[in-house]
């Protein structure tokens, strides 16, 4: 966190600092005690905003308000970011047409919410010999949702399952 590393007032270690007043005007390079006196006369804090600069840059401001605005910016950034989840829909090679339609509705719902969808065909027992039927189920799903989704990962076998990943169109 940035605010834990920010030095203020007496914690500033440099001998001289470049000082900026609350209005953004440069007051010049001066010793830290003099800058602290100016900040105290304005009832504000001296905050080190750029410690790497030569000499370090300090601004006279209300540190409490600065921290408050910083946390507000971080909250706003968090609010705007989207988390893409991977939803999974499982089918079998013998899944009926009506059940497949229901699964397609779910896939469309997930895609509309901007989530990725992992479609898995599970084979049990001797169904493993029906791998062509499983592939045709996945191909039919692709053709049904091609208006809203694209294939990120093509159908492939992993053990007793065949899977593919669909993502929303950009």
Task: Provide an overview of this structure.
The chain starts with a helix and ends with a strand. The protein has two domains: 2-77, Ubiquitin-like (UB roll) (Roll); 86-168, Translation initiation factor 3 (IF-3), C-terminal domain (Translation Initiation Factor IF3), CATH 3.30.110.10. The protein is rod-shaped, with a radius of gyration of 30 Å. The chain has helices at residues 2-5, 32-41, 63-80, 97-112, 131-145; strands at residues 16-20, 26-31, 45-50, 57-61, 86-91, 116-122, 149-158, 161-168. With 170 residues, it is an alpha/beta fold. A four-stranded mixed β-sheet has the order 2-1-4-3. The protein has a four-stranded mixed β-sheet with strand order 5-6-8-7, covered by helices on one side. A hairpin with a 6-residue loop joins β3 (45-50) and β4 (57-61).
Short description:
Helix content is 37%, strand content 31%. It has 170 residues and is of the alpha/beta class.
Number of individual domains: 2
Instruction: Tell me the radius of gyration.
Output: 30 Å
CATH homology superfamily of the largest domain: Translation initiation factor 3 (IF-3), C-terminal domain
Rounded to the nearest angstrom, the distance between the terminal CA atoms is: 34 Å
What percent of residues are in strands? 25-35%
Uncertain residue ranges:
none
- Categorize the overall geometry: rod-shaped
Largest sheet: 4 strands, mixed
**What is the β-strand count?**
8
CATH architecture assignment of the largest domain: 2-Layer Sandwich
Helix content, binned percent:
25-40%
Family: Belongs to the IF-3 family.
Domain Translation initiation factor 3 N-terminal: 8-77
Function: IF-3 binds to the 30S ribosomal subunit and shifts the equilibrium between 70S ribosomes and their 50S and 30S subunits in favor of the free subunits, thus enhancing the availability of 30S subunits on which protein synthesis initiation begins.
InterPro entries: T_IF-3_C_sf, T_IF-3_N_sf, Translation_initiation_fac3_CS, Translation_initiation_fac_3, Translation_initiation_fac_3_C, Translation_initiation_fac_3_N
């Amino acid at each position: 966190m940035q605010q834990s590393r920010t030095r203020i007032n007496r914690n500033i270690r440099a001998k001289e600092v470049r000082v900026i007043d609350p209005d953004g005007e440069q007051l010049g390079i001066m010793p830290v005690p003099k800058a602290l006196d100016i900040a105290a006369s304005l009832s504000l804090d001296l905050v080190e905003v750029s410690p790497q600069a030569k000499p370090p840059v300090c601004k006279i401001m209300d540190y409490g308000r600065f921290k408050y605005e910083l946390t507000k910016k971080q909250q706003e950034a968090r609010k705007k970011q989207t988390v893409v989840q991977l939803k999974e829909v499982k089918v079998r090679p013998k899944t009926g047409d009506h059940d497949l339609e229901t699964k397609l509705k779910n896939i469309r719902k997930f895609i509309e919410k901007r989530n990725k969808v992992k479609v898995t065909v599970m084979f049990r027992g001797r169904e493993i010999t029906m791998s062509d039927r499983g592939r045709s189920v996945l191909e039919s799903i692709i053709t049904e949702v091609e208006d809203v989704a694209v294939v990120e990962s093509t159908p492939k076998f992993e053990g007793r399952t065949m899977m593919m990943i669909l993502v929303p169109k950009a």
